[in-house]
Amino acid sequence: MSKLLKDSNHMCFACSPKNPIGLKLVFEHEGDICRASFIAGPEHQGWNGVMHGGLLTTILDEVMAQWLWSRELSAMTAEMTTRFVNPVPIGAKLTIESRLVANKRRLFLMEADALLPDGSVAAKATAKFMPVKV
Ligand SMILES: CCCCCCCCCCCCCC(=O)SCCNC(=O)CCNC(=O)[C@H](O)C(C)(C)COP(=O)(O)OP(=O)(O)OC[C@H]1O[C@@H](n2cnc3c(N)ncnc32)[C@H](O)[C@@H]1OP(=O)(O)O
């Protein structure tokens, strides 16, 4: 087992339950999907009443990374694009889902969607992840 896996002081901003200012995301896996949910509070806004896009990108990134991590694939984000489709209101429950699109040589091509409570798309991301030794 890797040192990182055993590290109980892991302080990932997005997923560690120990990070006092972290997002404390929790993940579930269903078939080929990794899923998390998040409700932005007033401290997470950019424009008044709207979740900050950088934070939304962080969550999309994390849910893609966790898809790989849950399969014991340690990989870092090498490139990522986010399309912000609709604003995310503060207090709305977001569902974020990721999946693998392709594995080309050393690159894992991933995609993720952030969905609003009515099922409409708030944001879509694509990313390339590259394996790293941990
Ligand atoms: C206890 C609980 C623990 C929980 C843990 C939770 C874990 C999850 C946490 C999740 C946290 C959230 C996630 C985060 O926040 S991850 C943090 C953000 N990401 C990083 O910090 C990554 C920084 N970058 C690097 O470290 C390196 O550049 C990497 C590792 C990515 C590659 O450096 P490496 O030295 O390995 O490779 P290379 O540069 O020799 O290139 C090799 C080949 O690849 C090609 N290439 C490179 N880039 C790209 C690209 N973008 N598109 C297409 N191709 C690309 C390149 O041309 C070359 O091709 P060729 O010339 O061979 O043909």
UniProtKB/TrEMBL annotation:
InterPro entries reported in the protein's UniProt record: HotDog_dom_sf, THEM4/THEM5_acyl-CoA_thioest, Thioestr_dom
Pfam families to which the protein is assigned, alphabetical: 4HBT
Keyword annotations from UniProtKB, A to Z: Apoptosis, Cell membrane, Cell projection, Cytoplasm, Fatty acid metabolism, Hydrolase, Lipid metabolism, Membrane, Transit peptide
GO BP terms in the entry: fatty acid metabolic process
Principal subcellular localisation of the protein: membrane
Domain Thioesterase: residue ranges: 48-120
Membrane-topology annotation of the record: Peripheral membrane protein
GO molecular function: hydrolase activity
UniProt keyword annotation of Transmembrane helix present: no
Keyword Glycosyltransferase in annotation: no
Reactions it catalyzes: decanoyl-CoA + H2O = decanoate + CoA + H(+); octanoyl-CoA + H2O = octanoate + CoA + H(+); hexadecanoyl-CoA + H2O = hexadecanoate + CoA + H(+); tetradecanoyl-CoA + H2O = tetradecanoate + CoA + H(+)
Protein name per UniProt: Acyl-coenzyme A thioesterase THEM4
